[in-house]
Amino acid sequence: MSRSIPNILKDCENRLAKVDSPRLSAQLLTAHALGCSRLTVTLERNRILSDCEIEAIHALVARREAGEPVAYILGEKEFYGLDFFVTPDVLIPRPETEHIVEEVERLYPKDRVFRFADLGTGSGILAVTLCVLFPGARGVAVDISPAALHVAQRNAHRHGVDDRIDFQCLDFTKEAPGGEFDLIVSNPPYVTAAEFNAASHEVTTFEPTGALVSGVDGMDHIRAMLPGIESTLKAKGHLLMEIGFSQGEDVKKIICREFSLFGQVAILKDLAGHDRVVVASKL
Known about the structure:
This protein is an alpha/beta fold. Helix content is about 40%, strand content about 20%. Helix 1 packs across helix 2 (about 20-35).
């Protein structure tokens, strides 16, 4: 076989035929192994690769063949136009979570000064992105996992906002972070046990179960965290929380029935038309 990049890419794509986006995966993994951009890989059609380069590419492809997500192999993932470090200690950022950031941008002008809490920060994508977008934002980012917090801290440092985020290791279903907040954001575990059991091999084998599953109906964490949210959210403050694709009405009923200090409660849909973000305003 020719050692040219196009031929190596084709071979990798064939090997990855059973995974999602085999061509894209082949390009990203090849670029990572060669230490160049995906664009460079697609343009350098006459470059002949060395044995060491081919071996490095094949090692990465073997990991992808086994089902390991590309983001974990590369060690990073893009979110809202920013690159974030990711490890198997944190969930891989997903585009659905960007709806939370979009809604904050709709609610607040860029020069707004506010204090926020990010409950279950994981890799820190919400806390870091908010601080990048809003120079006047300061916040607390909490997670029960010390390993996840380490990743989040690395991301805050990467984007130059680590001086505006206080990272705390605590169980937000049992203890609320100290102080009061203008804004609380969260992407808590909300997957049902049945949904997790039916999920892909990539999810069930490689992503942290504790950051995904929340009891039989997927709402154990949501129920447990709402009292702390109500007590720490300032008057006129906003809660933006990601939820499961069919949980909107149930979450809305819980908030309206059990938490009288919340006024308007709305459910935002994602691009597929599914329930995705609950937006609640405190009276």
